[in-house]
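Technical note accompanying the year-one report. For the benefit of new consortium partners, we illustrate the data format agreed upon in the data management plan: each record pairs a sequence with a structure-token string. No post-processing was applied to the example shown here.
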Amino acid sequence: MGKTTLAILIFFLIIIFFTSFLPFKSKVEQNTITNLYDAFGKDTALLKDFGFSCITKYQDKTILFDAGSNADIFNNNVKKLGIDLSNVDIVVISHGHFDHLNGIDHLLKINPNVKIYFPYDIFWGAPVPFDATGQEASVADSLEEHMQYFDGGNTKFTINQSGRFWNSNIEYVKNSKEIIPGLTLVSTHSPYMGYFSCYPGKSFVEGQFDKTREDCKQTGLPELSLSMKSKNGEVLIVGCSHTGVEHIITETKKLTKNNIELVYGGFHLLPYDRESTAKLVNTLKNDLQVHRVAPAHCTGHLAFKMLMDRFGSDYVYAGVGETISFK
């Protein structure tokens, strides 16, 4: 072997050696959903944590739905799965709980201009209508101008917050809407604040909460779900279903005038007892005529089992790292 040939061989061996340590960049395939963040799964290379994130591709748009509890764990799993976040076109955050959005900080370092859709939640930066008129409005006239709000101007106004994701390309969504053909953001509100103490069969959680159901009836938690029109019906991604997965499905059917092919994500049945879970499972199967289910995140072991028994071959396993497809 000549010196030139040997040098070329060594050069290529060096390239192969070093590139073997680089993360493999895989493309997110059209009409697939991959779970990026969850507390259960088969792939031991992925870190498990309580939270949720998945990624899908629809109409040639790569869409990240939620981003988990911990930015480091989110980063680890994304890298291990070979996902290139710079290719994400759209981000949908289901709601303002930590276990669904903390990985956004990591995403914005890589893809700072990505379009983000966020529920219309004033605690996370949505514009706030405000009235600072106060009592006895005429009293303002007795004050010098420099003591009056806005130098005596309008005291009914909107506070445009910067929010946590300051300077990002974020839109706060109040009403359901189709953002690209066939892709619909479904806006709902929980009748409760969305904590485990406020669900069927629970007046409070022993040792953790001291609330009655009436205490939990407040303004509600705004929530976004994502529905994609497919050949066989709507493919619906839900984050935590604080609104009630059955209510999200009902709203989706009303908006899209279509049947439900698949419901994927967190059904939030952890606090439901067996009787309440059985009722909900039957509602999904019989009344709402959902074809397939792919429960994840906060659905809970009891509901996993009951959904699997009821849906049989139409139950789709969706642990962290799993990719499922739809037509």
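Partners are asked to follow this layout when depositing records. The longest helix spans residues 3-19.
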